[in-house]
Specification:
This protein is an alpha+beta fold and 405 residues long. It has twelve helices and 15 strands.
Length: 405
């Protein structure tokens, strides 16, 4: 795949983005890679410790080939420098010729653009490759709202300069959502299923809020794993040796291949991320004797556990639920985390205490007539997703008193 046309390494985005149009005088710079921004600058950014918008995660994805131009993730990160040359803010950006791996759910939009005689690709995406996890996107070196406003203004200009049809800011948190909406971007609702910690003392305390039938079913699933003789261990990124890394990648790879998908992350990606994130990478491993036969790869920050990948060498009922959900809940309770976000989709999570939660993405559409089309579509979709979330909430396993908390 031929790389799209973007600024060369180290060039200023002036001529692409005008400093005069920014809310305060900043100097925009387009970076061709996350590792082009020094670690000292990354440490200034208000990322809330999010593991995905980190130099370690994005840099590893780009350096090991998971997020590069060949796979349709051309890094076009937008940095703002102040008058003294210091870093003011950063917006992770990728110029994309397709939508594989960004979870934007815009597959039909290309057809709509072509019907209007327009090209949908390339598009600009602010998000984390292959990671539909809500997190900070408008990264300011401090809490200044004018920096975030400047990043938005610069991204809109860069969209036009790159000839992109739109800029998508995917899976944003509340502070970014409010500012993006105020800047005129269209908001799109999504639904994921997240676990919330209501001050549980342990897993049994969590189960005490279930109805008797749901509690019995869940305990039966956990018991099946224990009776199979499997041992579950928790490892962090700085506690994994070479043989275990090989097993973890095999589990991840085989799951993707089984469902006809492309496993974008190479073994070196996980080793780099594990070394860089250390305790912010959490892996639940099932052992049969000395052999690692299944695993679930997660990440964390100070408040939240994020589930990402899973795989197994053995077919055992309940093992997926144990590694991907129950072990994570155990971990979150033990470490005082407030939430567990196990990834996109999965209505089966509802019966296990994961509640429907709204996610948000924001869209700047360059062509005014297509903006109107998208706005009408999103309004209809929003009504349907509200109804869907309400319907899913009716199937939660909690007693009425617990569900009302």
């Amino acid at each position: 795949m031929r790389p799209l046309d973007t600024p060369r390494r180290g060039t200023l985005a002036a001529g692409l983005v005008s400093s005069a149009n920014l809310p305060r005088v900043f100097h925009p710079v387009v970076l061709p890679g996350a590792l082009d921004l020094p670690e000292s600058d990354w440490r200034q950014l208000a990322t809330d410790g999010d593991p995905f918008v980190s130099r370690e995660f994005l840099g590893a994805a780009e350096r090991t080939g998971a997020a590069d131009a060949e796979l349709g993730w051309q890094p076009t990160h937008l940095a703002l420098r102040d008058a003294a040359g210091g870093l003011a803010g950063l917006l992770p950006l990728y110029l994309r010729p397709h939508s594989f791996g960004d979870f934007s759910h815009d597959w039909n939009w290309d057809h709509a653009w072509r019907q209007a005689g327009l090209d949908y690709y390339p598009k600009l995406v602010s998000g984390v490759p292959y990671t539909p996890s809500p997190g900070p996107r408008l990264l300011a070196a401090g809490a200044a709202t004018d920096v975030r406003a400047a990043l938005i203004a610069a991204a809109i200009e860069l969209t036009a300069a790159c000839g992109a049809s739109c800029w998508q800011c995917l899976f944003v948190r509340e502070a970014d959502r409010a500012q993006l909406e105020a800047a005129g971007l269209l908001l799109r609702r999504g639904v994921q299923f997240h676990w919330r910690n209501r001050g549980y003392q342990d897993f049994e305390d969590f189960l005490a809020g279930f109805t008797a039938a749901k509690r019995k079913k869940l305990k039966r699933e956990r018991r099946a794993v224990a009776e199979a003789g499997l041992r579950i261990e928790t490892r962090h990124g700085d506690e994994i040796d070479a043989p275990l890394w090989r097993a973890l990648h095999r589990h991840y790879r085989d799951t993707f291949v089984r469902y006809g998908n492309h496993p974008a992350f190479a073994p070196e990606f996980f080793r780099r991320v594990g070394a860089g994130l250390a305790r912010r990478m959490v892996v639940f491993v099932a052992y049969q004797g000395a052999q690692a036969v299944a695993s679930a790869i997660c990440y964390r920050d100070a408040t939240t556990l994020y589930g990402r990948h899973w795989g197994s060498d053995v077919a055992l009922p309940g093992l997926h639920f144990e590694l991907c959900y129950y072990a994570g809940i155990d971990y979150a309770i033990a470490h005082g985390l407030q939430r567990f976000e196990p990834g996109a989709q999965g209505e089966h999570k509802v019966a296990r205490g994961f509640e429907p939660m709204a996610t948000w993405s924001a869209f700047w559409i360059a062509a005014p007539r297509m903006r109107d089309v998208v706005a009408r579509f999103l309004a209809r979709e929003d009504c349907a997703l509200r109804d869907y979330a309400e319907e899913m909430a009716l199937h939660l396993p909690f007693k009425q008193t617990a569900a009302a908390d």
